[in-house]
Amino acid sequence: MNGTRVMNPNSIPHWEISGFVEYIGSGQQQDDMILPVPEGARAVRLGNDATIRQLLSVTRKKTYSITFSAARTCAQAEKLNVSVGPESGVLPIQTVYTSSGWDSYSYAFRARHSTAWLTIHNPGVEEDPACGPLIDLIAIKTLSPPRRERESGYGLSRVLAGNMLRNGDFEEGPFIFPDTAWGALVPPLDEDDVSPLPGWTVMSDTKVVKYVDAAHHTVQRGERAVELVAGREAALLQEVPTAPGWWYRLSFSVGDAGDGCAEPLAVEAYAARAAARVQHESRGTGGSRRASLEFAAAENATRVVFQSSNHHMKPDGTLCGPVLDDVALVSVRRRAARRLLL
Q1: How would you classify the pairing of strands 63-71 and 102-110?
Q2: Do 114 and 58 form a contact (C-beta atoms < 8 A)?
Q3: Quick one: how many helices (H) and strands (E) in the chain?
Q4: Fewest 10 Å CB contacts: which of 10, 87, 131, 249?
Q5: How far apart are CA 109 and CA 59, in angstroms?
Q6: Measured CA distances, 77 to 37, 105, 123, 152, 255 (Å)
Q7: Are 309 and 268 in contact (CB under 8 A)?
Q8: Mean pLDDT by 10 residues, the chain (342 residues)
Q9: Would the pTM of this model clear 0.85, i.e. be above it?
Q10: pLDDT in tens, 277-320
Q11: Range of the domain at 325
């Protein structure tokens, strides 16, 4: 090492490095900035054009999610390129969602071979080569994407006996580090990318949704839910096969995470030509309400879309929003006036 800079490509066990990589101790100071580490005593910092990578053993055709924690330091427009094999994605980290400065990000891929290189790269080039994000806590998890229930009938009479949505309860998703209280951020994806939240896609330019656990947040049902922390700048959606002219009921729970987000929270839901706005009067201590929306399908596939109607902040200045959980879509097999049932 030269000061904090790691000079040898193989000096960090199990990792290969290139570019300006530093080995940082918790509490280390840079100018007026103190660099914290969320777990343990050490982390790495990726400076100018820096990369860390590790060779993973995986199973072909299986789907995996990667979760890692990152924090900004002194660069202006920090972002990270994450890749596994030929797949890659850009994770914007300009927005900070926690008061500690650390967020956990998720990324997913489908294995093409029995081994794959996991690479995290900082493409930035700053006047100070040490300016770049800190990285700590990296985990890989096998995803088991839930399937829709078996269809019955043929042609236009084809219906699904249960929930037509995949992963409507959000129980399958990226790994959440048990000793962190900030969940895992699910980034926006291109249409063809693999989602770390199976069945669901986040549509946005740079914003995310937050995947939260019952150990640190109020979850309406089960152990996992989604907090819509980006207002109207991010939408959570899933496309579902439907029969044109048939009627369907979309039901869902809207609440707060019990994390001090004490503002009126509202979720906007869209399906086909129907729309609804569901408000939850939050005191920041948990609680939820159930709502449903009926609509007639206009196409062979219908997009179900959710977003928060506004931006919200907790008293510490960090972003928050309504929690969405227990989403179900069923065929009601009848014509009815479009309405919101509360």
Answers
A1: antiparallel
A2: yes
A3: 0, 28
A4: 10
A5: 12
A6: 21, 17, 10, 51, 33
A7: yes
A8: 94 96 85 75 92 96 95 78 85 84 93 95 86 92 76 41 90 95 91 87 94 96 96 96 95 95 96 96 93 96 97 93 97 61 52
A9: yes
A10: 999 999 999 999 999 999 999 999 999 999 999 999 999 999 99
A11: 151-173+204-341
User: What does the block give as tokens for 166?
Assistant: 């995949």
Distance of alpha carbon 132 from alpha carbon 135, whole angstroms: 10
107 vs 82: CA distance, rounded Å:
8
Tell me the CATH number at 216: 2.60.120.260
Residues 168 and 78 in one domain: no
Burial class for 175, CB neighbours closer than 10 Å (0-12, 13-18, 19+): buried
Question: What CATH number does residue 87 fall under?
Answer: 2.60.120.200
Task: Please name the helix (run of DSSP H) or strand (run of DSSP E) that holds residue 68, with its range, or none.
Answer: strand 63-71
d(CA 97, CA 120): 21
3-49 pLDDT, tens digit per residue, is 999 999 999 999 999 999 999 988 887 766 777 787 778 999 999 99
First to last CA, the chain: 62
Amino acid at 134: L
Do 232 and 323 lie in one domain? The reply is yes
State whether residue 156 is helix, strand or coil: helix
